[in-house]
């Protein structure tokens, strides 16, 4: 329930035109609330761009699988 409340708060801030910096390893939540994203792992930047761009470049079925594939090669 706490997770849902946080997501609701983030969406509310977004609707008000506020910028929210959201740091998470839970890619399902990222998919729900982010417009732009950066994937940083062990100090290296693996992706920086819009969520739509990330989705269009995915080669794996889920966000989690894509993330693991992306940083697993590091």
Strand order of the largest sheet: 1-2
Helix amount, in percent? 40-55%
Cα-based radius of gyration, to the nearest Å:
13 Å
N-to-C span: 34 Å
Sheet of most strands: 2 strands, antiparallel
Estimate the strand proportion.
15-25%
When the domains are counted, the total is 1
What is the count of helical runs? 4
The general outline is: globular
Q: Please state the oligomeric state of the protein chains shown.
A: single chain
What is the averaged pLDDT score? 88
Which structural category fits the helices and strands? alpha+beta
Instruction: Say how many strands there are.
Output: 2
Describe this structure in words.
There is one protein chain. With 74 residues, the chain is of the alpha+beta class. The chain has one domain (20-72). It contains 4 helices and 2 strands. The protein has helices at residues 2-15, 27-33, 51-57, 63-72; strands at 36-41, 44-50. A two-stranded antiparallel ribbon has the order 1-2. The longest helix is centred in the N-terminal third of the chain and has 14 residues, at 2-15. The protein is globular, with a radius of gyration of 13 Å. The N and C termini lie far apart (34 Å).
């Amino acid at each position: 329930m706490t997770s849902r409340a946080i997501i609701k708060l983030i969406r509310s801030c977004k609707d008000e035109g506020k910028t929210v910096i959201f740091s998470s390893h839970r890619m399902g939540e990222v998919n729900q609330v982010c417009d732009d994203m950066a994937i940083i792992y062990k100090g290296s930047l693996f992706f920086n761009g819009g969520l739509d761009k990330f989705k269009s470049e995915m080669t794996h079925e889920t966000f989690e699988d894509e993330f693991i594939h992306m940083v697993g090669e590091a």
